[in-house]
């Protein structure tokens, strides 16, 4: 069974963030809130944990995973960000946007699109996520916490998951699959991020999610 850790959604307690950080460094998987959906995640550099996340989501090897970074400067460590991409991202982050970018060598192959060598990166606008990223010092895998079926695609690079479970149902479904459940006392939301492909000369909206109206006029 997963350990449930209650955290204040706006002012996360340092001691509890530290407890989660240590668990992530030791390969733990967590169910945690973001500024879009609840997500399943782990330390980007914990290979065995990333493999477990892929198993939980039943992802084929060619399906990439999105991860969270704390800032635009940190993103440039894990992706090649051109001038146009930089200007776009600077206007939108932090926020509900996933950016598809060419990956650097620091991105594990387990996370990349194996053919395109690209990756999905977000800078979330959520106090718990940002506190965890600061404490951990590494990016955090972020894939939607819905129960997959054979017809579902990953939240990061596909359509929105069909399963809209309550908090209790979500915890029951994933209790034996994850190691930690972060409870902020809030019900899950099911509004996914907007996906922007920044790997081409002109940015392309791959999926309309939260905040897509803000970029529709100039993308």
What characteristics describe this protein?
single chain, 219 residues, alpha/beta, six-stranded mixed beta sheet, 7 helices, 11 strands, globular
Q: What this model shows, in words?
A:
- Helix 1 packs across helix 5.
- The chain is α/β, with parallel strands linked by helices and 219 residues long.
- A hairpin with a 6-residue loop joins strand 2 and strand 3.
- The protein is built from 7 helices and 11 strands.
- The protein is globular.
- 28% of the residues lie in helices and 18% in strands.
- The longest helix has 12 residues.
Which radius of gyration do the C-alpha atoms yield? 16 Å
Biggest sheet strand order reads 7-4-6-5-10-11
* Helix and strand pattern: EHEEHEHHEEHEEHEEEH
Indicate the proportion of strand residues: 15-25%
The span between the termini is 45 Å
Low-confidence stretches: 149-162
Shape, principal axes of CA atoms:
globular
Question: Overall mean pLDDT score?
Answer: 90
Helicity range of the residues? 25-40%
What is the makeup of the main sheet?
6 strands, mixed
Structural class: alpha/beta
Number of helices: 7
- Please count the beta strands (DSSP E, at least 2 residues each): 11
Question: What is the gist of this entry?
Answer:
It is built from seven helices and eleven strands.
């Amino acid at each position: 069974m997963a350990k449930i850790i209650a955290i204040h959604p706006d002012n996360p307690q340092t001691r509890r963030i530290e407890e989660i950080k240590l668990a992530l460094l030791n390969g733990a998987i967590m169910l945690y809130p973001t500024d879009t959906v609840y997500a399943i995640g782990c330390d980007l550099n914990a290979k065995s944990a990333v493999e477990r996340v892929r198993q939980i989501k039943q992802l084929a090897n060619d399906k990439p995973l999105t991860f969270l970074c704390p800032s635009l400067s940190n993103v440039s460590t894990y992706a090649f960000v051109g001038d146009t991409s930089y200007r776009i991202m600077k206007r939108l982050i932090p926020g509900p946007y996933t950016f598809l970018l060419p990956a650097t060598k620091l991105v594990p192959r387990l996370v990349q699109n194996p053919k395109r060598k690209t990756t999905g990166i977000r800078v979330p606008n959520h106090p718990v996520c940002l506190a965890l990223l600061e404490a951990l010092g590494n990016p955090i895998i972020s894939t939607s916490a819905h129960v997959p079926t054979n017809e579902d695609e990953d939240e990061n690079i596909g359509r929105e998951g069909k399963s809209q479970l309550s908090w209790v149902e979500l915890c029951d479904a994933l209790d034996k699959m994850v190691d930690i459940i972060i409870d902020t006392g809030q019900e899950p939301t099911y509004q996914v991020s907007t996906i922007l492909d920044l790997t081409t000369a002109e940015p392309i909206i791959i999926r309309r999610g939260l905040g897509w109206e803000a970029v529709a006029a100039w993308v």
